[in-house]
Amino acid sequence: MKKFRDHQRYRSNPQQRLILGIFIVVVGVLALVDNLGLLNTQQFLSFWPTIFIILGVLKMTQARRASGFIFGGILLGLGTLLTLQNLGYIVVHWRDWWPILIIAVGISYMFKGTRAKNNPAENDYSGSETQNQLNLVNSNADSIEIVAVMSGSKTSNASANFQGGEITAIMGSAEVDLRNASIQNEATIQVLSALGGIEIYVPNDWTVVLNGVPILGGMEDHSVPPLTQTKRLHISGVVIMGGVEVKN
């Protein structure tokens, strides 16, 4: 059983491996030529926003809903604008454009309100927020979609037919409790963690299969494997300088 889990842990999406592999090779080549004195790589510091471009592309390739695709597009657009500004092709006065963040937050709340009206079970909020505790979101929806950017999220799902979803944590944390949920056969959760942490709690009768790509980060499964593997939760995605942990 342990050998099977260790083997599954490092399987990954070929497309994601290709994108990340190219990025790692480019970084390694630049470091090598700089050490050999063949090229001054300081001039490449202008391209640091490409990390947002890479995160955006990864998010868009694994998005299962339109909102995930839109969020990936925002990261892609932000990285492109910052890169063009650093290269001197455009001039953006960010002090003039910061209200866009407020507009984006407002639109996000509007969409959440619409989804809650159409599907009350998907957005059932309970609990109160204190200084040391996040609001707990209870849901019976068959899928989850969690985004924590420089913030924290705590979610509990009790669906009788859980089918997976997406979890994104960028410089933030996300905790998902699935111990009251159930899956018929298999479900898949796509994760994207960059300088963030994701914790997933699963029932005792679920078998966890990790298929992610960790880069300067880690994906760990501390759940106890059941005797019968009739219910499987696949967790795939990318972890960059972050962590994903699965527990019972």
Structure overview:
With 248 residues, the protein is an alpha/beta fold. The protein has one domain (2-247). It has helices spanning 2-9, 14-35, 50-62, 66-86, 94-97, 99-118, and strands at residues 124-126, 136-139, 144-149, 152-157, 164-170, 173-177, 186-194, 197-201, 207-210, 213-215, 218-221, 232-240, 243-247. The two termini are 17 Å apart. 29% of the residues are buried. Residues 1-12 and 119-133 have low confidence and may be disordered.
Key words describing this protein structure:
248 residues, alpha/beta, 7-stranded mixed beta sheet, 6 helices, globular
> Uncertain runs with pLDDT below 50, 5 residues or more?
1-12, 119-133
| Oligomerization category of the chains in this entry | single chain
- Give average pLDDT, whole number: 76
Number of helices: 6
How much helix is in the residues? 25-40%
Order of helices and strands: HHHHHHEEEEEEEEEEEEE
Kindly state the number of beta strands. 13
Number of domains: 1
How much is the radius of gyration in Å?
Answer: 20 Å
Shape: globular
Percent of residues in beta strands: 25-35%
Order of adjacent strands in the largest pleated sheet: 1-2-4-6-8-13-11
Distance between the termini: 17 Å
What structural class should be given to the helix and strand makeup?
alpha/beta
Major beta-sheet overview: 7 strands, mixed
